[in-house]
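As a warm-up, study this chain.
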Amino acid sequence: MSELKRVIELATLMVEQRKKVDGLKADLDTAQRDLRRIEQEDLPELMREIGMQSVTLADGSVVDVVEDVECGISEERRSKAHSWLIENGFGGLIKTEVVTTFGRGEGEAAHNFAEEVAATTGQAPQVVERVHPATLKSFIKEQLAAGVAIPFDTFGIHPFNKARLKPAK
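Now compare it with the structure written out below.
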């Protein structure tokens, strides 16, 4: 077999594999979207309608409905959200990060960064204050459960019910 023929065969195989991967990605996206609809809409709504809180399946796994929440602080709402947290005694959730970028071979300068930013590297660090998304979600769930009035728009809060699967033991 000639080298050119082998190159063409492998290139053709690569094209076929790319199509296969793209198809599987599309199938995965569809399956995830369908699962999310069942978990967050169809099953919780049906169970609510018939007054069922949980069900045990034949394999011993349990499906129950729990409250969950999506939330996030956008760049546009960051100042307002941080102000609310501080004013309401939750300022400790806000973390401050100092960020700068070093190029390849600048490891020593990176280690000296904390002590002598301007003198050692000549770079101006970026200071960012933020609340970690997992911390925010946990905090929001806790406050909602306690009945605290939190501004939903400021924190992008979207509560929902979710069917949760507990696999059999």
